[in-house]
Amino acid sequence: MRAYAEGLVLALISIVAIWGAWQVPAASPGDTWAGIVPFSASIALLFLSGLLLLGAVRQPAGDTGQEQDNGATLQIIGLFIIALIYQQSFRWFGYLLPTAIAAPVVLYFFGVRSWIGLAVAVVLCPLIFHLIFFVLLGVYPPYGEVFDLLSWIQG
Amino acid sequence: MEIFPALLSVITDPSLLFAIVLAAAVGMVVGATPGLTASAAIAMLLPITFYMSPLFALAFLYVIGKSGRYGGSIAAILFNTPGTAASAATQIDGYPLARAGQAGKAMKVATISSVIGDLMGDILLVVGVGFIAAIALKLGPPETFAIYFAAFVVIGSVIGSSIVKGLASALMGILIAMVGLDPISSEERYTFGSFDLSNGIGLVPLMIGVFVLGEVFAQLETRRKATGETKQNKSTEDGNSLTWEEYKPCLPHAFRGGFIGAGIGVLPGLGSAIAAFISYGEGKRRAKNPEKWGKGALEGVAAPEAANNAVSGPSMAPLLTLGIPGSTIGAILLGVFLIHGIQVGPTLFLTDKELVYKLFACGMLGIVAYGLIGYFGATQVARIILKIPTNVLYPLIFLTAFVAAYSARGSMFDVTVMTCAGFAGWLMRKYDFNVAAFVISFVLAKGAEETFRQSLLMSDGGALIFVERPIALAFLVIGAGAIAFRVRGIMKERKIAKGALEDA
C-alpha cells in the first residue's frame, strides 16, 4: 500500500510539473526554450514514478513495509500546524508576541511539564532571540500589521 | 607553496584563531550529540554569516564541519550511539573498548587517527586542487554539463537504499530550483502568478528547513520510540592513557584510511560513511589480529576514523574547482560563497586565490584545534552532552530556525518556504527519499541548466555535441556506469539475502 502511495504521489507531482513546464512560452528564434530543463526533469520523474508503481505491483502480498507509528505522525502534523500558524502570525503580530506564545507550546510538545520553566520561556525566548538577531545582528524585525508588541513597548 | 603565507597570515590574526577554536569546540559538541548533525548546525548559523567577512564565515563553518565529523566518534565510543552515520564504523570496536573500561584509550586513538586522516586529506587537497582547477579552466559548456550530469546521477543513485528514490529526490531538487524567472530569457516558470515565487526559492531557507526544522520533526518522532537514557562509559585509570607502543600498530591503518578517505572524498556524493566502512573492511582484511576486530581492537577504531575525516578536505576539490558540492556541508558552503558574491569554479583560483588558501590554512589549524580539545577533553565534552536536556534543546532549535530563515533576507516568504521545506524534509526522510541528493541537486541545477543550454546553442540545438566531445562522453558514461554498478550491487545483495532465506 505504501509503495503504491509513494508512486502515485510522485506521479502526481510529475504531472503537475509537466503541466507547469508546458505553460512556459516558446523560445524566440535562435534561443533555447526556457522550459526544456523543467520539462525533461518532470518527464524523467514521471518515468521514475512508473518504476516505483511497477515495484509496488511486484511486491509480494502482505509485505506492507515498515510498521507505522500513527501517534508520532499526528504529533508531527500538529507541530507542523503550529509552525504554520507561528510563521503566519509574524505578519499579524510581529516577532515578540507569537514567540512568547509558541515557545511554551513547543516546549510542552517536547515533554517539558514544569510550569515555572514554561513561564520563564514566555519571557526569555522572545527576549534572547530579539537581542541576538534584531539588536546585535541589526536585522529589521517583522512588523505586525494587526498589533506589534515591540512598537507598543517602545511607545 | 601558497599555503605557507596563508598559514602565517591566519596564525597572526587573533580573531580568526578565536573563530577556529570556537568552531572546533562547537562542531565537536554538535557532532557528538546524537540526532544533531553538523549540517543542521551549519545551516542554522548560515544567516549569521551575512554579517561576517567571507573568510571568517567560511572558516567558521568549514571547521564546524570538520570537527563535527570527528565529534561523531565521541558518541559512538562513549554512548554506543553514533553521532554521525560515518561513526557507526568506529562504534564496532570503540564501544567494546569502552565497555572494557578503555573509553579514554579508544577516544585518544580516534582523535589521533582523525587528525592524521584529516591532515592527509587537506595536504592532498592543497597539492592537487590547483591542477584540477587548471584542467577545469579548459573545459567547455558540453564537458561541464556532462560533469554536472554525472554528479546528479552519482549523488542520486549511490547514497541511500533505493536508486529510484535517490534519482527522484535529485529530480525534485532540480524542479524546485527551476521556480522563478529563467536566467536567460526571463520567462516565468512554476510561479503560478505569484510575485514571491518569481524571485525563486532561496537556498538559505530551503537548507534551514530541510536540515534544521526537518531534523526537529524527525527528533519528535524518535523521542517517542526511544527508551531508556544514555549513559557514559567510564574509563579505568589504566584505560585512560595511551602509549606509543599501543598506537604504533594503529599507524598503518590510519595512513591507509587517510588515503581511502581522500580518494573517496574527491568523488561527489559518496561521503564519509562509505569511506569509513571501506577502510574498516580493508583494515580488517590486512590486520595481523582480525579475530580481535569487532571485539575491541584499537586498530578497528583507527582505520575508520582516519578515513571518515580524510574525506573532509578532498570533498572541497569538486566544489572549489567545478562548483559541484560533493556533500551537504559543501552545498551549504557554496551558499556562503554565493552570499558573499564569490563565484565558485575554476576562475575562483584566478580571482580569489588568497581567500581559498587562507581557508585551507584555517582548516588545517581547525584540525589541530579539535585534535587538542579532543585529546585532552573528549570525556569532558561527553559530560556536557549528557547534561544537555534534549526536550529543551529541540524547541530552541525549532524557534531558531524561524528567526534564522527570516534574518537571511528579512523576507516573510522565506520563513514560509523554510516551514514547508522542513515538513517536506521530514516526509522525505520518513519515506526513505534522499535529502542530501535533493539539496545538492537544487544547488547544482542552475549551473547545469546554463551549461546545457549553452551547449545546445553551440550546436544549433543538436544534442549530439555531448557524444561527439570525448571528455563529455566519458562523464556521461561514468554517470551511466554508476547506475549500472549500483543496480548490479543491489541485485547481488538480493541474491545473497534470498539464498540465506532459502538456507534457513
TrEMBL record, chain A:
Keywords: Membrane, Transmembrane, Transmembrane helix. The keyword Transmembrane helix applies. InterPro entries: DUF1468. Pfam families: TctB. The chain crosses the membrane at residues 36-57, 69-86, 92-111, 118-140. Residues 7-140 form the DUF1468 domain. The keyword Transferase does not apply. This is Tripartite tricarboxylate transporter TctB family protein. It comes from Ruegeria atlantica.
From TrEMBL, chain B:
The keyword Signal does not apply. Keywords: Membrane, Transmembrane, Transmembrane helix. Residues 17-440 form the DUF112 domain. The chain crosses the membrane at residues 41-64, 115-139, 145-178, 190-213, 259-280, 319-343, 355-376, 388-408, 463-485. It holds the Pfam family TctA. This is Tripartite tricarboxylate transporter TctA family protein. It comes from Ruegeria atlantica.
